[in-house]
Design a protein that fits this description.
Keywords: DNA-binding. By secondary structure, the chain is α/β, with parallel strands linked by helices. It has a 7-stranded mixed sheet, sandwiched between helices. The longest helix is centred in the middle third of the chain and has 17 residues. 27% of the residues are buried.
Length: 209
């Protein structure tokens, strides 16, 4: 289990541009799998979503009726964009169209995984994901509580407070300079200011720090 956890963590930590997944959050229900492991994949993808521009997750419809009420409302907790389809072919994570992970039994990463780097096979998996994505229905993002900091803007706020240049911050977050500038604009608008200097004070006033 330690090897699987380390591999998944390293894989998602290496993401710079894109993360694609097939996932069934209900597949592990009722199975004797340690709770920390159940949380691992979601945590890894959420962490990657803070740095990469594209995160697309595909989840089978039936999963929402099987998870707890909190988690069902929480399909909207899925980072990036998510779509519901009638089924998924197998669980999968593809990072930057360069490396993919699928479970050896196609359903549970806990039982072992296959790490794929062959470009032809990875491209085939990307195409499969695209085909399922096109048939899916968008999962709307859950509205944030009034006054809450959007998760994708927290790394931007931290970069501003650290005094990083836009170029350095964008490189550290693994996004383009244009995307970073756009997110800075979003952050300032959310804070109701046009001043980066005032942004820190306003963020502190709101309890975002």
């Amino acid at each position: 289990m330690r090897q699987i956890c380390a591999t998944l963590a390293a894989l998602t930590e290496s993401a710079r541009h894109e993360v694609l997944t097939f996932d069934d959050p209900a597949a592990c229900l009722g199975l004797p799998i340690p709770e920390p492991f159940l949380e691992l994949a979601g945590t890894c993808v959420r962490t990657a979503a803070q740095r990469v521009a594209t995160v697309r997750q595909i989840v089978p419809r039936h999963a929402l009726s099987r998870v707890t009420a909190a988690d069902a409302a929480g399909a909207a907790h899925l980072p990036g964009r998510a779509r519901l389809t009638q089924s998924i072919p197998f669980k999968m994570i593809v990072v930057d169209r360069a490396v993919a992970v699928i479970p050896l039994d196609l359903e549970l990463l806990y039982n072992g995984l296959l790490l794929i780097r062959d470009p032809v096979v990875v491209q085939a998996l990307v195409r499969a994901h695209h085909a399922w994505w096109e048939t899916g229905d968008e999962v709307p993002a859950r509205p944030l509580p009034p006054g809450a900091l959007p998760p994708h803007l927290r790394p931007v706020l931290e970069a501003l407070l650290a005094g990083l240049t836009d170029e350095t911050a964008a490189a550290r977050l693994g996004i383009s300079g244009r995307t970073y500038s756009r997110r800075v604009g979003e952050l300032l608008a959310a804070l109701g200011t046009t001043s980066r200097f005032r942004a820190g004070a306003e963020a502190a006033r709101r309890g975002w720090l």
